[in-house]
Amino acid sequence: MRVTEEELKQLIINKLHKAGLQESHAETAADVLVFADQRGIHSHGAMRVEYYAERIAKGGINTNPDFRFEKTGPCSAVFHADGGNGHTAAKLAMDEAIKMAKENGVAIVGVRDMSHSGAISYFTEQATQVDLIGLTVCQSDPMAVPFGGAEPYYGTNPIAFAAPSSEDGKSMTLDMATTVQAWGKILHARSKHESIPDTWAVNGNGEPTTDPFDVKALLPISGPKGYGLMMMVDVLSGVLLGLPFGNKVSSMYDNLAEYRKLGLLHIVINPEFFGGISGFKKDISQSMDDLNNIKPATGFSKVLYPGQNNDIVIEEYKNNGIEIVDDVLEYLRSDVIHNNQYDNKDPFAK
Ligand code: NAI
């Protein structure tokens, strides 16, 4: 079903507020979730609301956190999220990183003890909207095998990077998990009793599997290289902040009554302190054009710049409304807060 941006946002705010989240935090969460749906990143959009509502209702997100911003140097800081809503904490931490990078050229701000933060290019876009480069990485619960391993160690540990262009608020944006596919895709295949490609996941012996019911862990992108990127993300957003790391990162589903202690790191760079912002933005626009003009390979109609696939979806949804799965929209429009379907119910990696 199609829905307007305004209605979708309001439905999410209402639901999360009703579950117990304070209004301003519900507004940020809705903003981040709608940002994802608007770009076609539905795995991190409105379909997550019921999970968040259940966690909030059961006490697993601090609805009255003592957010504290601790400046540790001219370009460094730690944002203490106190078990609070991850979208809000990460957004506020990026606001602070932006101020520091405007003044000092660079900023590195870690966020500690937060809950899930959604599609993290939302935060890098905060930076590009004000002419800065944004890089955000964060931890997620262990569900990927290390290269050569038969049991999970790292999470899907995503990386977002965005550089502003001179073209009307547009940026080149990479926003990706470091696993080949998200766990949601395995669940989707299970629900449809379809097989999966043997490049996505492994069974309990670490062997590639095409049976979604046999999956015990996900595979990193590009073997040891993706595994190395997962390690980098875990070091920067976990170990660096003194947080649980590797397979000790708290699970999304194990205990919905317990605050999560996830870490995230924003790195913001101000091009004005390097080659100057106007030349930088002009060159990024040039790269976007160059890429679009590269001869397409057989089977492709055009080369897109990183993130352009999402920009195309935004344009389509702007004209026709955002496409949301019927069940999700029905839940959002109902009076139900949650259906008690997530707590300790996810069989992943068990
Ligand atoms: P994806 O595989 O859909 O896209 C990855 C990247 O490839 C994107 O930057 C996209 O713009 C680019 N891309 C796709 N098709 C393209 C094309 N034809 N030409 C040029 N570029 C193209 O993303 P993935 O890995 O499924 O991640 C989805 C979301 O999940 C992300 O927003 C990520 O932040 C989020 N995530 C969040 C986590 C958290 O704990 N907060 C954990 C894991 C993922």
Question: What is the strand and helix layout of this fold?
Answer:
Layout (H helix, E strand, L loop, with lengths): L1 E2 L1 H15 L3 H16 L10 H9 L10 E6 L2 E5 L5 H19 L1 E9 L6 H8 L4 E6 L20 E6 L6 E6 L6 H10 L8 E2 L14 E2 L5 H14 L24 E8 L7 H16 L15 H13 L1 E2 L2 H8 L17
Parallel strand pairs: 3-4
Antiparallel strand pairs: 1-11, 2-3, 4-10, 5-6, 5-10, 6-7, 8-9
The site of 1,4-dihydronicotinamide adenine dinucleotide has 26 residues, from β7 and α9.
Question: How does this model look, in words?
Answer:
The chain has ten helices and eleven strands. The chain is an alpha+beta fold. A seven-stranded mixed β-sheet has the order 2-3-4-10-5-6-7, sandwiched between helices. β6 and β7 form a beta hairpin. The two termini are 35 Å apart. The mean pLDDT is 95. The structure holds 1,4-dihydronicotinamide adenine dinucleotide.
